[in-house]
Amino acid sequence: MQDWKELISQAREQGITKQEVKNFLGGSNMQKNYRDYTVGELLDMGLKIDVYNHTNPSKEKAYNLLSKFEGIKRTSYKLESQVSVVKGWKNEFEIINFIDEEG
Question: Would you say 99 and 84 are in contact if contact means Cβ atoms under 8 Å apart?
Fold first, then answer.
């Protein structure tokens, strides 16, 4: 069996980070700060991701935000008389922008 130093050296040569080695050796029981997870990792865990955004002042800016995500389907609709929604989604990932049209 190879010693640990040799295994770590081989991992570094292949561009594997120290954290990735720790995660692999520790299995799925190792905890991570919630900020260290990627959206892809959360989706791979079987979670549904809903992002609610109340900061876009216009439909145009909401659509510009959605255009940053590849493959996102889009729609818009009125929720109430002065509130519009611009929504983007793909599979279990969804971004919902609420726009107050009264300002």
Answer: yes
